[in-house]
Write a structure and sequence with these properties.
By secondary structure, the chain is mainly alpha-helical. The chain has helices spanning 19-46, 52-73, 82-88, 94-101, 107-110, 119-139, 147-156. It is found in: Endosome.
Length: 161
Amino acid sequence: MSSSSPDSEPSLSKVALTNAERREVDAKGNLFSIIKAVDALEKAFATGLIQDESYEKQYQQLLTQYKVITTALTQGAIPFDVEKFIKDNHMQVHYARVRLLGTQLPATKMYHSGEKGSPDTVHILDAGQHFVTLVDCLKMEMVVVTPCVVQQGLLSLGLSR
């Protein structure tokens, strides 16, 4: 059994950092926090725990912070490698990786969540439907087409004979 004297404390080594190194460590700590926050936000949105407006507002703020931090960590012409940072720190952040290293668009904009279609949307869809019908008729080499189908299709597209 080993005994230690009450006066002995574990030795702590001090690390002397330059101001530049301190700023880099601070920036990387902030980046770590931002990535984890984006991951948690994406999970909350995906499971319906957060409303669209709140999600977008928080995501935009985090994205802005992410861009500022990664710009600050860029060394000259070499951009900071966020993917390597995530791997080196053993971060399990699939949602954040997809969002931040992908399009960087909020999911609500990417998938048009919660947006109401414009009045033109119906006309665009109708035009597409009639175009597909016309192409199908041409592919089947139809010689006689019911005038009602052609007439109705042309009228709904705003065309006439």
